[in-house]
Amino acid sequence: MESLHISSASEQTAHYLREQLIRKAWVDTMPGGPELASQLGVGRMTIEAALSMLESEGLLVPQGPGRRRRIELPEKMAQPARLRVAILLYEASDQSLDYLIDSKNKLEAAGHSVFYAPGSLTEIKMDVKRLARMVEKTEADAWVVVAGSAEVLQWFQQQEPPVFAVFGRRREQKIAGISPDKMPAIVEATRRLIELGHQRIVLLSSLLNVSNPGGAGAAFLDALSA
User: Does some domain include residue 4?
Assistant: First the structure.
């Protein structure tokens, strides 16, 4: 097992400054130590140690006493390409959801151009042919798909642009994404309702397919029959 390394204050500061250099927070020359110390709220010695680290990495070049260090950013460390990211919503009103607003803001803060697709999944009725036509007409380098069906995500999986799934039927797909694990909560709630004597228990889900209920639906049915 490797030993744990805890970064020093100067190493943490160097890491932050390195990221800012990559983001082109400064152009041509680096602000002086006193100015950076004031901006970051750290000591002069910490700043100077961090700047020395960046000099040793070749990112900064000293210009002599009283002169700012010159920035020499290698081409391989240049800011990543600015992507056009299309967000495909489940329905148009999802634009007001906090987590989508936050995600959009963070992508834009990272330098990407983010916009909502011209139609939602409910508007095209999860139809893959209509989806293909919409994607073809949309100039996007990457896609974020919200609550996509298995068919929709399977189609995206076969396309060239990268896609990230938010919720939806992604368990069956080899696709990057995120979603809460609802099954334990559904099972626990169903069992509790049964213990309380309830018999007519219904699971409402816009994505539930009776013939193929999927993970959450199957867990619900198993809890009912247990």
Answer: no
